[in-house]
């Protein structure tokens, strides 16, 4: 039997991943009564099927890759990784796919939690179908924030629904090591999972439709990662796509993959890492004049622009501004501040780098790819600068020339690049490739968001011998060129 009741809050948040949690935390801290609706695990994709489990798989891989090059350590670490132990560690880092700890935090923050599938039901209203079949009607005095994130997008391959293929979820949560794994896709998920599963003992074939890995980044990033993947034993192929695939023995056996070049691959599992799609197909967008399944277009205050009244917000992956957990949490802080300000009747400050504007989504999105070597990027690439008509000066340096890099890893291979705006003389883009370069990224992000003049950077002295000395070498290269 289905019953219905109505509850009223100041703010309704749909989706209890890191983004939804942060929106709810901000609005609750501002004194607004807030309920968060979640149909799966509280903590979202990042905690259980993305950031946390993938890095738990990759950390032993990257640590071993460094240690095997260090004199005195190399004999102790040259054996194979203990895949069973790594998978068990991954399970612990994913809380064994139980959200008790996350639920406890939500309650401690004073946020109400409602389990169930939430759908918009008109202006400032959300209908929630609970697991026990009841329907709860929620009304918001001020705002509804859609924080439903994104999901893996599968290609339109004939018969794919019967293939039992992996997406990023299966790739980060699998409990058994496939002997042979085909990965389709050259982006971050594809290269990270190739790095992890090859090192754990799978025979990996990585298929890239493009002529290089991670095509949106500087070309040298993909080249260095390709080099190391092939050295590790992975079969990396370019300019090839999948035109057919089937799982034999009634859908229970191996996967046979037909390629665009006429070749065929046989594997135990196939992972499609071919992009993301918004989780918006069944959240009631049609009740507010939007098309189900679309990305939510927002302005810099994270307000959905096509819905009048400034009450609907799209925060995190669902708006497609920057598909990173850390960027979604940044947006959540902005959105929470905007919602609270509007509730108090305040005038918003939405100018560039202002408190109510997510400017960083457009100018300084940092990201790290946890491959061997690591790739760290923020701001513009050369290609993006050319596409947008920005006049930039490009400065490169081989990180392996640094004393700190050689101390880190005797065979250090890596490269750094910064882009300097010719008119404003500030850094507008940075790419670092090499072991451990993820820790360089925050300094680059600060330089870009702070618009630090290049001449001022001469006075930021890096410690010796550290990899951060690359900043000094980049400035010296520019001066001497």
TrEMBL record:
FAD/NAD(P)-binding domain ranges (all copies): 9-322
GO biological process: 2-oxoglutarate metabolic process
Binding-site residues, NAD(+): 185-192, 275
MF terms in GO: dihydrolipoyl dehydrogenase (NADH) activity; flavin adenine dinucleotide binding
Keyword Flavoprotein: yes
Gene3D superfamilies: 3.30.390.30, FAD/NAD(P)-binding domain
Pyridine nucleotide-disulphide oxidoreductase dimerisation domain: residues covered: 365-471
Record-annotated disulphide pairs: 46-51
Family: Belongs to the class-I pyridine nucleotide-disulfide oxidoreductase family.
PANTHER family assigned to the protein according to its UniProt record, in alphabetical order: DIHYDROLIPOYL DEHYDROGENASE, MITOCHONDRIAL, DISULFIDE OXIDOREDUCTASE
Protein name per the record: Oxidoreductase
Source organism (scientific name): Streptomyces albiflavescens
Classification lineage: Bacteria, Bacillati, Actinomycetota, Actinomycetes, Kitasatosporales
């Amino acid at each position: 039997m289905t019953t219905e009741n109505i509850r009223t809050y100041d703010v309704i948040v749909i989706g209890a991943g890191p983004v939804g949690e942060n929106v709810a935390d901000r609005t609750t801290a501002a004194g607004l009564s807030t309920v968060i609706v979640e149909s799966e695990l509280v903590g979202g994709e990042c905690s259980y099927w993305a950031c946390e489990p993938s890095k738990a798989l990759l950390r032993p891989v990257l640590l071993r890759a460094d240690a095997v090059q260090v004199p005195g350590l190399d004999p102790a670490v040259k054996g194979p990784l203990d895949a069973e132990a790594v998978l068990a560690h991954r399970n612990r880092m994913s809380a064994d796919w139980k959200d008790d700890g996350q639920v406890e935090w939500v309650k401690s923050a004073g946020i109400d939690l409602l389990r169930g599938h939430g759908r918009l039901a008109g202006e400032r209203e959300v209908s929630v179908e609970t697991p026990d079949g009841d329907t709860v009607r929620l009304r918001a005095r001020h705002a509804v924030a859609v924080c439903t994130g994104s999901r893996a997008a599968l290609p339109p391959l004939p018969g794919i629904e019967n293939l039992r293929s992996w997406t990023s979820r299966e790739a980060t949560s699998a409990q058994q090591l496939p002997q042979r794994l085909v990965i389709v896709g050259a982006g971050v998920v594809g290269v990270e999972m190739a790095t992890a599963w090859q090192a754990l003992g799978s025979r990996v074939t990585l298929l890239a439709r493009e002529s290089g890995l991670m095509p949106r980044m500087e070309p040298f990033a993909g080249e260095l990662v390709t080099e190391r993947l092939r050295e590790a034993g992975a079969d990396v192929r370019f300019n090839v796509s999948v035109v057919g695939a089937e799982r034999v023995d009634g859908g229970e056996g191996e996967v046979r993959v037909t390629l665009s070049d006429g070749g065929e691959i046989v594997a135990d599992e196939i992972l499609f890492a071919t992009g993301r799609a918004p989780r918006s197909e069944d959240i009631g967008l049609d009740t507010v004049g939007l098309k189900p399944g679309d990305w939510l277009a927002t302005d810099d205050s994270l307000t959905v622009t096509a819905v009048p009244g400034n009450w609907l917000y799209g925060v995190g992956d669902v708006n497609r501004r920057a598909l990173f957990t850390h960027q979604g949490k940044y947006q959540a802080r902005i959105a929470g501040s905007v919602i609270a300000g509007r509730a108090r009747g305040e005038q918003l400050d939405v100018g560039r780098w202002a408190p109510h504007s997510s400017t960083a989504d457009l100018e300084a999105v940092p990201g790290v790819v946890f491959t061997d070597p690591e790739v760290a990027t923020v701001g513009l690439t050369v290609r993006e600068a050319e596409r947008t008509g920005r006049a930039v000066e490009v400065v490169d340096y081989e990180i392996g020339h640094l004393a700190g890099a050689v101390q880190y890893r005797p065979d250090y291979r890596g490269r750094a690049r910064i882009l300097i705006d010719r008119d404003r003389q500030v850094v507008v883009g940075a790419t670092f490739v090499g072991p451990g370069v993820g820790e360089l990224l925050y300094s680059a992000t600060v330089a870009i968001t702070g618009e630090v003049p290049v001449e001022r950077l001469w006075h930021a002295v890096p410690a010796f011998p550290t990899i951060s000395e690359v900043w000094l070498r980049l400035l010296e290269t520019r001066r001497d060129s």
